[in-house]
Amino acid sequence: MEKKLSHIDASGNAAMVDVSDKKVTARTARAFGRVEFPKDVFETLAGQDFLGKKGSIIQTAVIAGIQAVKKTSELIPLCHQINLSKVHVNIEPKGQALEISCTVKCTEKTGVEMEALTGVSVSALTIYDMCKALSHDIKITNIQLKEKTGGKNDYRS
Hints:
Largest sheet: 5 strands, antiparallel
CATH architecture: 2-Layer Sandwich
Strand content: 25-35%
Helix content: 25-40%
Mean pLDDT: 93
Number of helices: 4
Distance between the termini: 21 Å
Shape: elongated
């Protein structure tokens, strides 16, 4: 089976995928990412229970990630608007980093991979924003799709 880009039409122009003939199925996606800190910055944050002048770094990033998931079709031009069933953003300290996972569920004609990836990305950017006063040497890394179910193909990395 030949693979081709789904968002490019026969003339080479950007096009939204027509999902009208697809079946409605339960779909899930889980994405992952990390925000890595210099050692002294991470120790300072951990010593403060990840509370900064702007409030709880982790809880603010969780809320930002959930909001971003709901706005994905407004941010990514060719994404469909979909009704979400569940959004869960989890952020945990590990090593000198905060690890972010975002799980999104729906029952629709198209998947939620972009929503999960957007949730992780905006959560990570929110963490950066809340911590940049301590250092600009903060790295957002490893944003990736970890799992997708529903539709034609399932995926696990």
